[in-house]
UniProtKB/TrEMBL annotation, chains A, B:
Coiled coil: none
Residues in HTH merR-type domain copies: 37-105
Keyword Cytoplasm belongs to the record: no
Family annotation (Gene3D superfamilies): 1.10.1660.10
UniProt name for this protein: MerR family transcriptional regulator
Entry's transmembrane regions: none
Protein's organism: Nonomuraea diastatica
This protein's record includes keyword Metal-binding: no
Length: 163, 163
DNA sequence: GCTTGCGTTCGAGCGCGCTCGAAGTCCTAG
DNA sequence: CTAGGACTTCGAGCGCGCTCGAACGCAAGC
């Protein structure tokens, strides 16, 4: 998927450097090379989700999508950009409800920037905690793999049953 | 002991920050200093879950738990160790169904080690992918925080609506 | 004209993982 | 003797995030 590719390159660019990387991401998240507007199927494809889910997001008030003369949805760059953000937040576990709140703040204008920032800071912490938890799980699984995959020692039985 | 070494390295990898990591690793490692057997409330507390959830796991066939003379559950070291593993797998997104399968393999004996190993390898990859996805989300959120929290430049408006 | 295919709306259904509550048992403290 | 509290079993309920299907519209191709 295109977005992932873009972000992956952004990540690679990141490395250890600070503020420069921000600009790099900015550049890379511009959906260059993507059509002016797309059908729901194309958008779903790009976002690695389903047309059903996109309609669901719209029903939930997360994004407004224009229509063509047949009443078919037309996803323009703005809608797609918002959906890229939304799906990224969903992937990191932000509930629909919170996204609705966030979007409501966006729609409410500049004076809500503070609250939005608070939400982002809180979600950043949540993501970091998730990563820590997953790293622990990864360690546990790798440990178990080591006991299974290595020489079949006496440990295996001990750990089989439980740990 | 190998376990301590691995966990120590895990701690270092994680930056040894916060009570959360420490506590989690404590849960991950061994149950030294933990009573010989515990009530469901104590076990739930230790595992950071609810008695209801522990009964649910038992009903699902994931663990067998002894009873005292009153029919109350007694979680011994083996049960707790298994539950530590199970909750760790749950935290990293392994479905109950897969855990049931894994436990069935464990109960089936040594000849299933290979299949268990396969499951663990697959789950390891799943965890790694999750971590990658979360890292991308983290980057995206930090980028947005930077545009909001830094000097309020012209970018803010552009990105507000969508990206 | 008719089929195929992609879209629409709407409401219902589903899978998952708990979560809860009712009704009962047992021990302990007052 | 009684009240409280922690536990038991059981089945039902819930919150979330889609997911599906029915009934329909429109436009192109044979």
């Amino acid at each position: 998927m295109a977005t992932e590719h873009l972000m992956t390159r952004a990540l690679e660019t990141l490395g250890a450097d600070g503020p420069l990387s921000v600009e790099a991401i900015h550049r890379l998240t511009d959906l260059a090379g993507v059509p002016e507007s797309m059908t729901i199927a194309e958008a779903a494809d790009l976002l690695d989700t389903s047309p059903h889910a996109l309609r669901y997001y719209e029903r939930a008030g997360l994004v407004e999508v224009a229509r063509d003369t047949n009443g078919h949805r037309l996803y323009d760059a703005g809608a797609v950009r918002r959906l890229v953000f939304l799906t990224r937040m969903r992937l990191s576990g932000m509930p629909i409800r919170d996204l609705q709140h966030y979007i409501a703040l966006v729609d409410a204008g500049e004076c809500t920037v503070h609250e939005r920032l608070d939400m982002l800071l809180e979600h950043r912490d949540i993501i970091r905690r998730q990563i820590r938890e997953l790293t622990l799980s990864l360690t546990a699984v790798e440990y178990k793999i080591a006991t299974y995959g290595g020489a079949t020692g006496p440990d295996v039985q001990d750990l089989d049953a439980g740990a």
